[in-house]
Model the fold of this input.
Amino acid sequence: MNLWNRMMCYCRRHSPWLFHMNTGSCNGCDIELIASLSPRYDAEQVGAVLQASPRHADVLCVTGPVTRNSIVAIKTVYGQICGPKAVVAIGSCPASTNVFIDSRTLEGPLDQHIPVDVYVPGCPPRPDAILAGVAKAAEMLAERRAAGETEKEAIA
Done:
């Protein structure tokens, strides 16, 4: 591995850029995600920065159960993130639809629609658990970059 690739692996491990997407949650996980980015929990220790555009992000953080109205948006946002990329499912809703399991407006767990790399359990999860999940996603990104995964391989 040449110097440029080693530098990119180091940067990806120590500075994940996040894009947050709410797919219909109760906002409990959203509040905890924003709290994890506050100075109290110090998201800068893993270099996490919240981005306004998915085109600038490395990690997609999804909260809430997957509703019919959000499926197209999820796939569009996932496609806009350049590879290699990681998806973090925050809370119990994207993992299992939680208490909304019998709702007619839901389309199942998130992993039926896009690949999920890290699950952060809880309803809502603690901010330190969210940071641990983001740090794990950052390590996965660095490993994928070191393995030479391209954007086309990440989409497939």
The radius of gyration is 15 Å. Residues 44 and 106 are 35 Å apart (CA to CA). The chain has six helices and five strands. The helical segments are 3-14, 28-36, 71-80, 92-96, 127-147, 151-155.
